[in-house]
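Let's practice the habit of predicting before peeking. Look at the sequence and jot down your guess about where helices and strands might fall. Then scroll down.
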Amino acid sequence: MSTPIGPTDSTQVPRFAGPATYARLPRIDQVDRADIAVIGVPFDSGVSYRPGARFGPSAVREAGRLLRPYHPGLDLSPFSVAQVVDGGDIAVNPFSIGDAVETIDRETSALMEPGTRLVTVGGDHTVALPLLRSLHRRHGPIALLHFDAHLDTWDTYFGEPYTHGTPFRRAAEEGLLDTEALCHVGVRGPLYGKRDLEEDRRFGFGVVTAADVMRRGVDEIAAALRDRIGDRPVYVSVDIDVLDPAYAPGTGTPEAGGLSSRELLELLRGLTSLRLVGADVVEVAPAYDHAQITATAAAHVVYDLVGLLALQHRSSS
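Done guessing? Here is the structure:
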């Protein structure tokens, strides 16, 4: 197997120059294989409040210029142990949610066909549903860790079944999820009614609130998540609004009282034993950001998810 091609060397080409790929990685068409691909889905037609997440992938790529190749928290150089690439953007129809969902499913399935694992940057949370459909065909029912301020298991908005607030209800209804191993993390804020929580439990979800993380601590929560998931194939979906608006103002539906970026990153680093099959980071809306705060947080979350996948690649090689 050929030695992985890494990012552009920042000692030779300044970070503000050179390729505009995520972490200045090679493009997928520049390598002979892709073990892990970071892809963008610039789609936000499923949002219910502030639009703009279609510009999230480009903002996260720009903020990722400052990333360095060694990850001390994981004791890993992810770009050296796996061929990590920027897979570009999936161009989807901004005027038809149904058509966009079908396109995402088809294109991500093609990308995964040779064994490539994806970290997807949204875009709004609607994109998680077609990604789970693609993964279900490869792995069967999938465990889910969902980091978000919101449940995203509502039924419809204005009669529409496919929105950023409904992907995991649809996924449960379609049998894509392993209902013994589902959990929301970071949930907080007002709901439409107590019934929201009751229906969510009916689909099999456990809930770890933002207050639970504060009171119980990161290590205890991470251990509980590992116990819940076990050795099942798991998908990690991160809505950037799981972070408090102080750490992620650039998002469509902010809620006070969220996680810090440090808490989120440490929770992810506590998942190294899990069998991660894919991940996303969604809902970065740069028009509401300040000084790249949100995009920088998202770029680091992507880096940690890539790191988790690279650890698995190393152990299986």
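How did you do? Residues 293-316 form the longest helix (24 residues).
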